Amino acid sequence: MEVLRRVSGGGLLAAVLLLLAAAVSEVSAKRWTVGDNMGWTTNVNYTVWAEGKHFYYDDWLFFVYDRNQMDVLEVNKTNYEACNSENPLKNFTTGAGRDVVHLNVTRPYYFISGKGFCYGGMKLAINVEHLPPPPSSSPLNEKSSAPRSTHIGHTPFVLTAVFAAARALIW
Ligand SMILES: *[C@@H]1O[C@H](CO)[C@@H](O)[C@H](O)[C@H]1NC(C)=O
Ligand SMILES: *[C@@H]1O[C@H](CO)[C@@H](O)[C@H](O)[C@H]1NC(C)=O
Ligand SMILES: *[C@@H]1O[C@H](CO)[C@@H](O)[C@H](O)[C@H]1NC(C)=O
Ligand SMILES: *[C@@H]1O[C@H](CO)[C@@H](O)[C@H](O)[C@H]1NC(C)=O
């Protein structure tokens, strides 16, 4: 009884809001596993992998690779093209073979693996875009083949929560 009374106070509302907030951030950012099941490795063409994908502000890249061999370096365009791994803009290598990159700026990003692997094709160039404006019509009327759920990130809470719940069920 006492628990119920407490929960039904401000606590419940806060809990619901927290859940909704979690749902919103869940659907508005995407984590991309670079190379999908292949990961970050040789014999994958990352230009082909990135083709047709849209990377948006606040998305994440997840590099999965053999920590004893490869690494993850962000370089500029010149060094991307030349496979020059000296003085990278940023070294994302943590040593675990599992590195994440938060795409927190809308601009082109260039990644390579050093240690010679870039020459074999371990290089990835992407352009990070602003989120597209929300569609003028209701997302419910959109083609169900819409590839991502980003569009609903800015729609009212309730709708977003419904979508999140639906996604959770599908997964
Ligand atoms: C990239 O950095 C190198 C120095 O490492 C510099 O010479 C080159 O001009 C830079 N390229 C771009 C496009 O900024
Ligand atoms: C990147 O960081 C890792 C881990 O700190 C380090 O072992 C490696 O030498 C660095 N690579 C470059 C090119 O700076
Ligand atoms: C973006 O994230 C990087 C780390 O990945 C950080 O160094 C940088 O300060 C961040 N930039 C902004 C604008 O938040
Ligand atoms: C990857 O594929 C693109 C487009 O088909 C091609 O232009 C490029 O040369 C390929 N890269 C490698 C390293 O094979």
TrEMBL record:
GO cellular component terms, A-Z: plasma membrane
Gene Ontology molecular function terms on file: electron transfer activity
UniProt xrefs under SUPFAM superfamilies: Cupredoxins
Alphabetical UniProt keywords: Disulfide bond, Glycoprotein, Signal
UniProt xrefs under InterPro entries: Cupredoxin, Phytocyanin-like, Phytocyanin_dom
Pfam assignment, any one: Cu_bind_like
Domain (Phytocyanin) ranges: 30-130
The protein's role, per its UniProt record: May act as a carbohydrate transporter.
Family: Belongs to the early nodulin-like (ENODL) family.
Protein known as: Lamin-like protein
Protein species of origin: Cucurbita maxima
